[in-house]
Structures are given as C-alpha cells and as structure tokens.
Amino acid sequence: MFRIARCQLAYLPLASKLVRTRTLASVSPSSAINPNSVGPFQVFDRNAKRMQKDRSAVRDGGERSRTVDYVRDEVADRLVERMQDIKRKFNRILDLGSGPGHFSKLLDSEITQKVLMLDSSEKLLHRDSDEEFDVQVERIHADEENLLQVVPRDSQEAIVSCLSLHWVNDLPGVLVQIKEALKPDGVFLGALFGGDTLFELRTSLQLAEVEREGGISPHVSPMTDSRDMSNLLGRAGFTLLTVDVDEVKVAYPSMWELLEDLQDMGESNAVVGRRHYIHRDTLTAASAIYKELHGHEDGTVPATFQVIYVIGWKPAPNQPQPLERGSAETSLKEALEH
C-alpha cells in the first residue's frame, strides 16, 4: 500500500512540476577522433551495470521495474517529439541501449516500419512482449560499447539512444561507432543524463560523509554536460548539430524512496572502485541533510534529472551546407533595427 502511494507521488510532478530549460549549442570543430589511438579509461564496471539491470528486470516478476519507468517514459516521450520534427519516414530505426523499449513503444507506422532494440541486459531487453509495440521488433543482446561488432557500417538510417550513453566508458568512441553505423545522411538522436542529475542526493551524501566519516567517496556517477556533447559530436564527425537541455523534477517522501527507486531502475552506482556499502548512520544523516537543504514545505524532497538531448547527422553530399562566413547580404544589426 505504501509503495503504491509513493509511486503515485513520484509520478504526479512529471505533469505539474517539469522544469524545461532549453539551451542550444552547436560546435563542429574540424579535428576528428581516432578511436584506435588510446584505449578508453575505465570509469564504469560494465559487468556490474549489466547485473544491476538484470536484477531490476526480474525483481517481483518485472513489476517493480515497470513501476519506476516514469522517468524513462517521460524522457522517451520528449525524444519522440524531436524525432517527429524530422519530416522523414525511416524503414528501420536502431534503439541503442533500449532497455525494455521505452522509446520504441512510442513509434508508429508513420515514423518507421521496424525497430531494432539493442541492450547489454538480456533480461531487461525481453522484459515486455512484442504485443506492446505498434511496429515490428527485433531484439539484439549486445554491449553498446561494441556496436560495430554486431551492426555493419553504413547500414542504419537512424540510431536513437534513450538514457543509456551515460553508462559507457568510451563515449567519444561510441559516438564514432554510431556515426560509422549510419548511412550517409543518417540521423542520430540521443538523450542522456547530464552533470546536474541528482545534485541534491550528491551534495547530501558528501556532507554526511564528511561529518560522519571525515571524507567522501563517489556515490553518483560522473556525467557530461551540454558543451561536452557538442564538442564530442563534432569531433566524431556529425554535422547539423543540435544540443538542448531539459530537467525532470520528481518529488519523493524522503531520500530512502529515491534510493529504492534508483535500484529498481537499474541506476545504482557502477563506478569502478566504488564502496559497496554506506554506514547506516551516514545515510540517516544524509537523509536529514537532504530534507533540510532541499525539502518542500509539504515534507517531500525533490530529485532533479537533467537530460541532455542531442541530434546529429552523418555527412552526405546532398545535405544543406552553411554559407561561407561574410557572405550574408543583410547585417544582423540592420535586421534587429527593423
């Protein structure tokens, strides 16, 4: 009974308290990434992350996982809106790091005929049946970091990634692989958690650890920001870039319910060298700090999920090209004066 009430409380702010901050960025430096030059630094334990997702998918027959789909479903809905702005029908779309198909379930025959769902967690990939999709579905169990081992180069019209890329170790290399897997003039749409995600939880845990244990350790994963994504997309070879930022704020009764939902989402800490436990008194102190620093008047606490949305195109001769600098016939000053 308590669980149902908590989840309803967590979901309602998605409709009433969403904070939309849209900042555009577009950077396309000429330098390219050589994915074979230096191996990626291992920040995340990919095997641990796969096991976390597997456990979340089978807990209570998958019902607990479905209960906490609210953040991913909201982000997938916003990502589909961006895809609908692209006035093109695709024969096939690759959903990279699909999970059970939060994004793919929103696709219809006006957007595509078929979707390829690829995820490192086989149990999460097969959590939901094909009957829940409006388009044909094919599932591929593979690691997102090794995309080109299972997907041929120049084979995809569109690749989408909804809340998966924040767990890859070699983000520049994966972006290069995505670009290589696309056909010329193919499009990539992505959504990933940004650096301000769960800042309330991060600061509360850090202050509690300093107070109770005399030091801090990472409990919330390092994440990128919008400027980094602009640079990485440009260096990977994408053109016609768009990067914008949204925030999803969710209210919880306390920090404890947030931690439980993160576990059921498969979003627990997977940083290499992480601590596998936190002292109970440290968590109790963090919960009190969380409520004191960030709590609402009604006794709930907020959790902020910052989401970075990106769009990039693989270069092709027939794509629109920007005019040369200085070729404009009307100055910006004159346009603003009128």
Salient structural properties:
338 residues; 7 strands; S-adenosyl-L-methionine-dependent methyltransferase; Rossmann fold; alpha/beta; globular; disordered N terminus; transferase; single chain
Provide a compact summary of the structure.
With about 350 residues, the chain is α/β, with parallel strands linked by helices.
Task: Tell me what you see in this structure.
- The radius of gyration is 21 Å and the shape is globular.
- The N and C termini lie far apart (62 Å).
- With 338 residues, it is an alpha/beta fold.
- The chain contains twelve helices and seven strands.
- Helix 7 packs across helix 9 (226-236).
- The protein is 35% helix and 20% strand.
- Helix 6 links the parallel strand 2 and strand 3.
- The chain has helices at residues 2-11, 13-16, 46-58, 63-67, 70-84, 122-125, 171-181, 199-213, 226-236, 255-264, 280-294, 332-337, and strands at 90-96, 112-119, 136-141, 156-162, 182-193, 239-252, 301-313.
- Strands 3-2-1-4-5-7-6 form a seven-stranded mixed beta sheet, with helices on both faces.
- It has a single domain (2-337), classed as Rossmann fold (3-Layer(aba) Sandwich).
